[in-house]
Amino acid sequence: MTTTMTTTTTIRVDPIACDAYGYCAELLPELVSLDEWGYPVLDGQPVAPRLLALARRAAKDCPRRAVLIEQSPVPSPGRDGTDGAR
Ligand code: SF4
């Protein structure tokens, strides 16, 4: 059986680079909230396809280039609903 792969996209913030400007939370409130000091808090969940453009914009517009977009391969479900593994 062949296992096919898809990718999942997540965002994270480089805490060293971030200066707590808060633009990312303004652009992507669905995924980013701010703590009491203005630093972003992320839930770590994959970015929904409908939010990908906003996530890329948050990364592009971050003045510190602290928003990082990461893509990871994940096995896609087989036609029978399994992950293709035996
Ligand atoms: S926009 Fe960039 S610098 Fe500002 S809070 Fe978000 S990650 Fe930090």
Give a description of the structure:
This protein has 2 helices and 4 strands. It starts with a strand and ends in an 11-residue tail after the last strand. By secondary structure, the chain is of the alpha+beta class. The protein has helices at residues 23-27, 52-61; strands at 5-13, 32-34, 40-42, 67-75. The strands form 2 sheets. A two-stranded antiparallel sheet has the order 1-4. Strands 2-3 form a two-stranded antiparallel sheet. It is elongated, with a radius of gyration of 16 Å. The chain has one domain (5-75): Alpha-Beta Plaits (2-Layer Sandwich), CATH 3.30.70. It binds iron/sulfur cluster (SF4). Iron/sulfur cluster is lined by residues 13, 18-24, 40, 62-64, 66-67. Iron/sulfur cluster binds at residues 13, 18-24, 40, 62-64, 66-67.
For the record, the count of structural domains works out to: 1
- Proportion of strand residues: 25-35%
The main pleated sheet reads as: 2 strands, antiparallel
Q: Tell me, rounded to a whole number, the average pLDDT.
A: 89
Q: Going across the biggest sheet, name each strand in turn.
A: 1-4
Shape: elongated
Write the layout of secondary structure elements.
Layout: E1 5-13, H1 23-27, E2 32-34, E3 40-42, H2 52-61, E4 67-75
The protein binds iron/sulfur cluster.
Residues 13, 18-24, 40, 62-64, 66-67 line the site of iron/sulfur cluster (SF4).
Write a concise keyword list for the protein shown above.
86 residues; Alpha-Beta Plaits; two-stranded antiparallel sheet; 17% helix; binds iron/sulfur cluster
